[in-house]
Design brief:
eight-stranded parallel beta sheet; binds magnesium ion; globular; single chain; alpha/beta; Enolase-like, domain 1; three-stranded antiparallel beta sheet; TIM Barrel
Length: about 375
């Protein structure tokens, strides 16, 4: 049958079908996008400071601590609540005081459509410079809210395959050989370990871990090595012991030394302290071979997605990391994890007073909950 004849017959058949049906009222929404939300009035913001208790004293090259201040945020629209979090490790300069001050200046009630994400995040970014954790807390809450209004998790809205979520690391802090051995054995369920270095026992740290396990490891020096020849010697030493990469080996200011090391190192060299936002990314080219993206540094999920896209175009390796955080911010970061090479999302496991349940680690692998938004539910309703 010729195409023209087929169309003629189909048209007649369709007409006959319509004529044979009872007259149906015209559907006014036909051909239009269905609105996912009712008119729910203005966006309502609420927030509260909270103190995370760490399970163990946490020691890195520059400091030790037992608590981390966070602020828990809620954005409400049409009876639906989206949750966010700002976590403020001291070295980034934000605090309870600065985040509460920032949030007090934000007027979310001017917005009555939570799906105007670009407008809302652009407004938030312009309230004050810096304050990346405070901004992340609003960005995460907005993503959680809009995902819930649409009834979908963000990994699905981004079109990501949850099966491709990577294994996540568990962090072993700098300590004596006995404690390191004990912590490594405790981390037996993990298939990737992150070893902190940068004090005076670097080789002992890796040798101790290797004395009890052969799982893949990577090393975070937190800018602790000052001499590039020593850094290269350690890169070779670590490579021979099965390390995958090194995070921030030297002070971020030693750009030439880091570029020299990256060129010679058998292991990829990743930037952590050296970059925060998407604006910091271009200068990393030729200096580092990869980056550590954290929501608290870059300002949230939207910015992190942009950074991942750009870093890939620059041919860089990507680690997604976190601070000590509740399952809120960790689960938000986990939504992006199918896009990255490695994940270091153990911040919620390092604390004893999490208020949410969300992402879980099953057989060492990130497992994304099939719940809308960022996939979290409250552990203690009084905290929400
Ligand atoms: Mg780091």
């Amino acid at each position: 049958m010729k195409k023209r004849d087929f169309l003629k017959i189909s048209g007649i058949a369709a007409g006959a079908l319509i004529a044979g049906c009872k007259a149906a009222p015209a559907d006014p929404s036909a051909g239009r996008v269905k609105s996912a939300v009712k008119k729910g009035g203005p966006l309502k913001l609420s927030y509260k400071p909270y103190e995370l208790q760490l399970r163990h004293v946490f020691t890195v090259a520059t400091n030790s601590r037992t608590t981390t201040p966070v602020v828990l945020t809620t954005l409400e629209y049409d009876g639906v609540k989206g949750y966010g979090e700002a976590s403020m490790p001291p070295y980034l300069g934000e605090s309870h005081e600065s985040v509460l001050n920032f949030l007090s200046k934000v007027n979310m009630e001017q917005f009555s459509d939570p799906f105007l994400k670009e407008d809302i995040l652009s407004y938030i970014d312009g309230v004050m410079p810096g304050n990346h954790a405070a901004k992340a807390s609003l960005d995460i809450a907005l993503h959680d809210l809009t995902g819930k209004l649409l009834g979908q998790p963000w990994f699905r809205l981004w079109g990501l395959n949850p099966q491709k979520a990577p294994v996540t690391s568990f962090t072993i802090g700098i300590d004596t050989a006995d404690v390191v051995k004990e912590k490594t054995l405790e981390a037996g369920a993990f298939r990737l370990l992150k070893i902190k270095m940068g004090r005076d026992n670097d080789k002992e740290m890796i040798d101790t871990v290797r004395s009890v396990t052969d799982v893949p490891v990577f090393v975070d020096v937190n800018q602790g090595w000052k001499d590039r020849n020593y850094a290269l010697e350690m890169a070779n030493y670590l490579s021979e012991r099965g390390a995958l990469f090194i995070e921030q080996p030297m002070p971020k200011e030693q750009v030439d030394d880091i570029a020299w090391l990256t060129e010679r190192s058998p292991l990829p060299i990743l930037a952590d302290e050296a970059l925060q936002t998407v604006q910091d990314l271009l200068p990393m080219k030729g200096v580092y071979s990869g980056i550590n993206i954290k929501l608290m540094k870059c300002g949230g999920m939207h910015a992190a997605y942009q950074m991942i896209t750009m870093a890939r175009q620059m041919g860089m390796k990507i680690l997604i990391g976190c601070m000590t955080e509740t399952s809120c911010a960790v689960s938000a970061a986990a939504q992006l994890s199918p896009l990255v090479d490695w994940a270091d999302l153990d911040g919620n496991l390092l604390i004893s007073n999490d208020v949410y349940e969300g992402m879980t680690v099953v057989d060492g692998k990130i497992t994304l909950p099939d719940r809308p938004g960022i996939g979290i539910i409250g552990k203690k309703s009084e905290n929400l």
